Amino acid sequence: MKDLMKINHLSTHFNTENGTVKAVNDVSLRVRQGETVCIVGESGCGKSVTAMSIMGLVEEPGGKVVNGQIEFEGRDLLKLSKNELRSIRGNEISMIFQEPMSSLNPVLKIGQQIMEPLLVHQKLSKKEARKRAIELIEKVGISRAEQIADAYPHELSGGMLQRIMIAIAISGNPKLLIADEPTTALDVTIQAQILDILRQFKEQNNMSIMLITHDLGVVAEMADYVIVMYAGKIVEEGEVVKLFQSPKHPYTQGLLKSKPIINQRTDELYSIPGQVPNPLELTESCYFHDRCQHCMDICRTKQPVLKEVGEQQKAACWLYEEALVHA
Ligand code: SF4
Ligand code: MG
C-alpha cells in the first residue's frame, strides 16, 4: 500500500499562563492508501491535537505547531498557504467530530449545508448540487431523503446528524477522512451503523481513515493499524491483530485488560491505577513511570524511544532494551 500521509516529528505546543504544554511531542506516523489507522489513548493524550494539526486548525497565539512535517501525497501541509490548505481541507482531507451539532449551522436546512461544499469546491450548479445532496443522504442510509434535506438540524436525532456529517465529509470523495470520536455520543446500535457506513465508504472509494477514539471496541472493529498515545507521545504502535494479541508496552497492556466487547460502548478506558502526569511537569523520564508496575531506575531519568519490538510493532519502553534486560 502506498503512503498517503506521513507525519514526521510533529510537535504542537500550547502556551498557558503556567507554562508550555507539549500536547503533541515528537510524533511520527503514516497512513497508507485505503488503510484505517486508529489513534487511541485517554483524553488529553494528544490524539485530537494531532488531528487539528493536520487540519491546520491549531489556533495561534496559544497553540502552535512548533516542529515537524505533515506530508500529504508528498506536499508538506505545514508549508501551504491558508488558501491551498483550505482547498485540500474539505476536498482531499475531511474531518468529522464527536458533536455534529457544533459543526452544523442551526438556521440552515440540512440540504443547503450538504450543497454548500458542492457549490464551492466542486462548482456544481444549484440543481446538480441538490440532486447530489439527496443522493448523499441516501448513501448514508437515510430514507425520505427529500424530506430530510428540507429539515433543520434540531429536527434530527444525533445519529441522523452524524450521518449527515459523514455525507458532507465524503461529498468531495476525500482521500483521507479524519474522524475524532465520531460515535462517542451515540448509543450502541447507532454507533455500529455509523461504523458500518464508514467502512463501506472506505472500501468503495479506497479511502483512508484516521480514527481517533478512546474505545477499544471501536479499534478492534475498525483498525488496520493502531497507534497508542500517552501524554503527547506514541508509546506503542502496530498492526491491529498483533497489538491486541501481544501488547508490549505496559500502558497498552493495561488498556487491554478491559477486554473490548465489540458493539458495546465504553465511556472510559479501563482505569490504570495512578494519574496521567501533569503536562506542565514532564521530566526526562518515561511519562508512564508513576503508574507502571515494571518501573526500573532508568525509567525515572531517561526517556525510552520508540523502536521495533516485533514484526510491524514498535514500543517505547526500557523493558525491550536488550542491553538493559540482559545486564
Ligand atoms: Fe514501565 Fe519503564 Fe517501560 Fe516506562 S519504560 S513503561 S516505566 S518499564
Ligand atoms: Mg479529543
TrEMBL record:
Instruction: Provide this UniProt record's keywords sorted from A to Z.
Output: ATP-binding, Cell membrane, Membrane, Nucleotide-binding, Transport
User: What are the ABC transporter domain coordinates in residue numbering?
Assistant: 5-256
One GO BP on record is: peptide transport
Q: Give GO terms: molecular function aspect only.
A: ATP binding; ATP hydrolysis activity
Subcellular location(s): the record lists: Cell membrane
Cross-referenced Gene3D superfamilies: P-loop containing nucleotide triphosphate hydrolases (3.40.50.300)
Q: What is its main location?
A: membrane
What is this entry's stated membrane topology?
A: Peripheral membrane protein
**Got a GO cellular component term for this one?**
plasma membrane
**Which SMART domains does UniProt cross-reference here?**
AAA
Q: Which domain of life is it from?
A: Bacteria
NCBIfam families linked: oligo_HPY
Q: Which family does it belong to?
A: Belongs to the ABC transporter superfamily.
Q: What is the protein name given in its UniProt record?
A: ABC transporter ATP-binding protein
Protein's organism: Paenibacillus albilobatus
Q: What is the lineage of its organism?
A: Bacteria, Bacillati, Bacillota, Bacilli, Bacillales
